[in-house]
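Slack export, channel: ligand-projects

TW: morning all. Re-posting the request from yesterday since it got buried. We need the structure predicted with the small molecule present, not the apo form. The ligand is magnesium ion; the SMILES is in the block with the sequence. No rush, but it would help planning for next week.
GE: picking it up
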Amino acid sequence: MSSENELLIENTYKNFGNVSAVKNFNLKVEDNEFVTLLGPSGCGKTTLLRIIAGFEIPDSGDVLLNGKSIVNIPPYKRPLNMVFQRYALFPHMTVYENIAFSQFLKKKPKEEIKNKVKKMLELVQLEGFEKRKPDQLSGGQCQRVALVRALINEPKVLLLDEPLGALDLKIRKDMQIEIKNIQERLKMTFIYVTHDQEEAMVMSDRIVLMRNGEIIQIGKPKEIYNYPNSIFSAKFIGENNILDGEVLEIKNDHLVIDINGLNILTNKTSNVKIRDKVFLAIRPEKIKRIYTIENKSFDNHIVGKIEKIVFFGSTIKYYVSISEEIFLVIEEKVAEENNKHVKGNNIGDEVNLRFSKEDVDIFLK
Amino acid sequence: MNKIVNRRFKISFLDIINIFVIIFLMLPIMVIILYSFSSTSTTVFPLEGFTMKWYKEVLENRLFISALKNSVYVGILVSLISIIIGTLASFALTRYRFKFKNIISTTVLFPMTIPAIILGISLLSFFSYLEIPLSLLTVIISHALFCIPFVILIMNSQLIGFDVSVEEAAMDLGANAIQAFRYVIFPIIRPSLVGVMMITFALSFDEFLITFFVIGRQNTLPIIIWGMLRRGVSPTINVISTLVLVISMTLILIVNRYAKIKTFM
Ligand SMILES: Nc1ncnc2c1ncn2[C@@H]1O[C@H](COP(=O)(O)OP(=O)(O)O)[C@@H](O)[C@H]1O
Ligand SMILES: [Mg+2]
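GE: finished. pasting the full C-alpha cell output, ligand included:
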C-alpha cells in the first residue's frame, strides 16, 4: 500500500518575470508523511504549494499523484486541499457553512453533511460554534475552522501554508502539537510550509530546506540538525557558531583551521586543500566549560571571557569573547550550570572552553 | 452573553448623537411630505388644512406620469448597464495585468471630471454626427457614460480589498468559477453592488443638464420639473418630491430583497 497517495514533483520550474520562484524541484512525498517546506520568506514555498494545489501552472516539470500527472487538472477537481496563509474563511458564512461548503458542492445529503461537520467540530474542539461568523472567532479558532474545512473533504494530500504564522507564540505551540496529532490520527499526508525552523523540527517527519527556489537539503529533522550539508543548513536549522577561516595544515586524522590567529582542529574532509577558505560551524551545546585542562580527550581548548549571560529557564547561554573578532555562544542545561566547581560563572570571568573535532562542521566557501 | 444583552438597553451619548443626526437628515424630507398635504398654495408655517388635491392634480397630469415612467425606465436601465460594464471593468483593472493598464484606469474615470454641459454638447454632436435620432436610448447611453466611472471607482475600492485567497479557497474546496462567484464573491460584494445600483439610479434619475441636450421630444422628471419651475413654485412640486421619495424607497426595498442571495444552507 505504500504507493497509495504518493505525490511526486519532478524537475519543476516556475518563473515570475525574471524572478525564479521555483527551480529544478524534485520531491517525493510518501503516504501518511508529514513533510515540511522550510526556508526564508520569498524562497518559493508558497509558489510550490500553489503549483501542487493547481493555482499556478509550472513553466516546466510535472506533478504526479499516484503516478498520474495532475498539472492540467483545475484546482477544483484536484483531490487535494489547502489551508491558506491567512485562513481565507468565507466571511459571510457561519462556521457550519464554511465547513460544510465542499460537501454541499459535492451534493452530499443534508443529514450526512450534518454528521460530518459535527465530527469535524469535535476534532478541533469547536462544538457549539456552528452559528458564529468568522469575525466572531479568535485567530486560533479561525485556524481550526480553516483546518477542518479542508479536512472534511478527505483530501489525499493536505497542503498547509504557514497556517500558524499569525498566531501568538503560546497558541502556536499548542496548535503545532494539535495539527501533528490530527495528522497522525487521520493517517493523512501533510505538506506543511513554514519559515520557522523550530516549528519544522517539532512537527515534521521530513524537512525540505529551500533557498531561492531550490532544495538545499532534505532529511529528518535530526539528520539535518546533526549533519547539515551546507553553511546555509548549518545557519538556518538550530543555532550555530559560525567561524570564518582558512585551512592551515592537513594532518593524518585532522585539519588545522586558522581563524584569525586561533587554531581549531576539525575532522578531515577529503576535498580541502591548504589555504582553502572555509566556514566552521559549532553547536552552542557542544562547547563545554571546564575547570582544568587535565586530559586531552577534547581536541580544542580555548580560553575566553564571559561577556553576557542569558537565562532561558531550562537552559542558560553564555556569550564568550575569544578575541577582538571571535565570539562564541555556549548553551548549557541549567542542571549542569549548577556545578559550582566550574570556573567562571559571572560576567567578566575567564573561562576554559573545549570541544572535540567531531563537533565542528566544516564547509568550503 | 448577559453583559452584551444588558448593554443594548442603555442609551449612550453616542446614541443621542445618532438620533440627532437622523432627525437632522430627515427633517427637510418630513417637511416636504407634510407640505404636500397643505391646503394653501404657499408654504406657510404652521400648516393650514389637509388636502389631497395636489396629489390629484399631479396624478391626473399625463405629462407628469409619462415623464415619471420615462425616468424610472431610464434609471433602471442605466443602473443595470453601468453596473455590468463598470463591475467587469473594475474586475479587469484590479485583478489582471495588461498593457497600458495605468493609462486605461485613469481614462475610464474621465467622464466624471468633464463638466456636464460640455459632456451634453459633445454627446449631442456625437449623436447627430452618427445620425442617431435623439430618444430615451440616447439618454440611457449618455447617463451610462457618466455613471460607469462611479461604478468603477466604488467597485475598485471593494475589489482591491477583496482577499483573492477567499476565492481560491472556494475553488480549492471544489467550486468551479461560476459556483465560486455565486456562493462566495457575489455575496461578499453584494452590499457594494446594491449601493452602486442605488447611486447610479439616483444619478440618472435627477440628471438634468446632459439629458436636456440629448432627450429629443420626450420628457424625464427633471425636465418636467424644470418646465414647471419656470412657471413659478407650486405645491405640486412637494407632491412630486414625495412621490419620488416613495418610488426611491420602494426600489431600495425591492433591490435589497431580490439582491439577497442566501448562503447555500
Ligand atoms: N504572482 C507573483 N508575481 C510575481 N512574483 C511572484 C508572484 N508570486 C511569488 N512571486 C515571487 O516569487 C518568489 C517566491 O515567492 P513565494 O513562493 O511567495 O515565497 P515564500 O512563500 O517562500 O515566502 C518571491 O520572490 C516572490 O516575490
Ligand atoms: Mg509564503
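GE: first-pass observations. Residues A 45-46, 85, 162 surround magnesium ion (ligand 2) (CB under 6 Å). Residues 169-186 of chain A form the longest helix (18 residues).
TW: perfect, thank you
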